[in-house]
Amino acid sequence: xxxxxxxxxxxxxxxxxxxxxxxxxxxxxxxxxxxxxxxxxxxxxxxxxxxxxxxxxxxxxxxxxxxxxxxxxxxxxxxxxxxxxxxxxxxxxxxxxxxxxxxxxxxxxxxxxxxxxxxxxxxxxxxxxxxxxxxxxxxxxxxxxxxxxxxxxxxxxxxxxxxxxxxxxxxxxxxxxxxxxxxxxxxxxxxxxxxxxxxxxxxxxxxxxxxxxxxxxxxxxxxxxxxxxxxxxxxxxxxxxxxxxxxxxxxxxxxxxxxxxxxxxxxxxxxxxxxxxxxxxxxxxxxxxxxxxxxxxxxxxxxxxxxxxxxxxxxxxxxxxxxxxxxxxxxxxxxxxxxxxxxxxxxxxxxxxxxxxxxxxxxxxxxxxxxxxxxxxxxxxxxxxxxxxxxxxxxxxxxxxxxxxxxxxxxxxxxxxxxxxxxxxxxxxxxxxxxxxxxxxxxxxxxxxxxxxxxxxxxxxxxxxxxxxxxxxxxxxxxxxxxxxxxxxxxxxxxxxxxxxxxxxxxxxxxxxxxxxxxxxxxxxxxxxxxxxxxxxxxxxxxxxxxxxxxxxxxxxxxxxxxxxxxxxxxxxxxxxxxxxxxxxxxxxxxxxxxxxxxxxxxxxxxxxxxxxxxxxxxxxxxxxxxxxxxxx
Length: 633
Hints:
The chain is α+β, with helices and mostly antiparallel strands and 633 residues long.
């Protein structure tokens, strides 16, 4: 049984998500018959799957839910907000039951509690939800009050008889629906068999016609041969039709298979080592003049490139993998806050590396919760401001040249820079002198400070001062950046700039002193050459002027405590960007673009090293460090 649990889990998640999506659609349009049918079919299939596995509690709960869906699907019950809430509770309970059965014997009660506390996920009591569903599906006089007539005993008997008759009709209609479903399947199989018989009959008729036609042609050829008495003796034979050949039974083809994430990681590491060795072979054979060797090496590079691209593609997961939980989450948060919010998700088909996808889930949740709590106003406030009473939160993902851009924006109140400065002063994050020197953009960046919050009270959503610093640290740890923009009273927008994969980097190799370093292309804007005379000094810092704006310079020689160059006529500057902030890195020379396989620091002594994201191995076997632009700026 255990070998089927992974399949059961993935299929269960699929059907629960399908039912949840249908419920969200029905909340907007309660009379959507198509969504009702989709939900009913998903529940029916899920119940059958659970019955096959022998999970009785899941079967009972799903059966009652299926009965309730069938009642409003057939018009015997009106679907309202209270029923939708109950069905959502049912889905949560089913999710909890699936989680429990998949953990199996290894999952003890204490472990489940620990997991829930870590994941902040609690499930409704399945027994209580089952009682609620049974009460709705089998209403008694206590559950649904009815008017009591005080006439006579016969009136009561008559009413009881009607009630029993109605219940019998309901049960009869339910059984009729089930028989109809079975009848449809039977008729479908019957039609398929009849089609096969018709095809066989047509084939036989074609064979008879073909045989007669071939006999006639051969007779004519024979007569012509006798007349001319020359030419080769040949005979036309009937070729078996491809239709008959295709009709032979064939073994089913396996279209897909499941592999563990550990195997994917191991495969990626092996491909990384292969790429490094490919570069090494290229370096060693660079001086060889053998054409055969060059041809073989070229083919080897092509094959390793294709293998590398295929493995990277296998690791890719669509953004929908994490965004599919957001509509339900926003719905619940909006109801708790008495707000009306419409969530729009665009670009959910954009793919990211699995490792990145696992890391950005929590940051996105934090940003969405903040948009609900701090961004979107109450309906009456929005109407007073001349806005629609329903606010909009939009998630947009787009693929750029070397990275993926994810935007989270809302049409709420925006971010008040003055409030942020006041809160920062009161809580001692900055001094008054520092506050006076900060621009509006710099003031807004204070929301990423650890422990910072503008909320006066602590709620389930916010007020504890954790969240935004987690967002910034998590994204920058992946090699990305966070940018925030706001228009007070109108909107806020957060832009997450993410690498497509963290396994492979497109990097610019630079030389500083006698050492070589790699700068990821996701951070590079452009590289320029600047004359020494163009460098100016403002408050003791070196800057250059580009497009009438001052760009601060950072000499990597100075950062790495290397001796300065005695004579220099021009500077090589690599302009990098982080969250809208630009800086020029001064290097000795540019060595060119190269693909690098990043190796993270696993040593505790190195993992907190400032300025470096990891290391890589070049084709000549030398190890070079990869600069972490986010920690340098």
